[in-house]
Write a structure and sequence with these properties.
Elements (H helix, E strand, L loop, with lengths): L1 H11 L7 H10 L5 E5 L4 H15 L6 E8 L6 E2 L6 E2 L2 H28 L4 E7 L2 H12 L3 E5 L5 H7 L2 H8 L4 E4 L3 H8 L3
Parallel strand pairs: 1-2, 1-6, 2-5, 6-7
Antiparallel strand pairs: 3-4
Organism: Lolium multiflorum (Italian ryegrass)
InterPro entries: Rossmann-like_a/b/a_fold, Universal_stress_UspA, UspA
Protein name: UspA domain-containing protein
């Protein structure tokens, strides 16, 4: 048994005792690739986070695959007709709003893919619908991501308490490690006080 393991290690170019057949077989097949999912929206913070991940994570892991994910909320547009709660949504208005949302999603994804192309990184894109917190969480799980990267808007405590934080939710509920890229201190200070 030990001789077979040593022979397999030698055949793979791994010296005997330096990892055994399991590591040798992984070496022969090639290292598993890391899947990095970057959540992007129309904010500069999300593009900054994507850029940071490309420079500091993807460049350090040759062969890593990158998926840019954009979640857009599916809005329902209705107009009150009467005081008793009936509502009506003209089909043309609904179609127009859907087209606008789809166009905005395409624009966001195109900007993110341009950031990847500038760094000569090939990336795929996915647009998911629904509440961004839940939609991104589900997409990460379905994609079997190894790392989720997203930007932080640097909301203050009051805004975060009132609005909720997508990054906070994902940090606690995503099925993989989450990297939250904060805005640079100079940027945060510049927006906080302009006296």
């Amino acid at each position: 048994m030990e001789e077979e393991r040593a022979a397999a290690a030698v055949a793979s170019g791994v010296p005997p005792g330096a990892g055994g057949t399991e590591e040798a077989s992984r070496g022969m097949a090639g290292a598993t690739t890391m899947k990095v999912v970057a959540a992007v929206d129309a904010s500069e913070e999300s593009l900054r986070a994507l850029s940071w991940a490309l420079d500091h994570v993807v460049q350090q892991n040759p062969g890593a695959s990158v998926v840019v994910v954009h979640a857009h909320r599916t809005e329902h547009f209705v107009y009150p007709v009467a005081a008793h709660g009936l509502a009506y949504a003209p089909p043309m208005a609904v179609d127009s709003m859907k087209k606008t949302q789809e166009e905005n999603a395409r624009r966001v994804v195109a900007r993110a893919l341009d950031v990847c192309a500038q760094r000569q990184v090939t990336a795929k894109a996915a647009v998911v619908e629904g509440d961004p917190k839940e939609a991104i969480c589900q997409a990460v799980e379905e994609m079997h991501a190894d790392l989720l990267v997203l930007g932080s808007r640097g909301l203050g405590m009051i805004k975060r308490a009132l609005l909720g934080s997508v990054s906070d939710y994902l940090a606690h509920h995503a099925s993989c490690p989450v990297l939250i890229v904060k805005p640079p201190k100079a940027h945060a200070k510049g927006t906080a006080s302009s006296t």
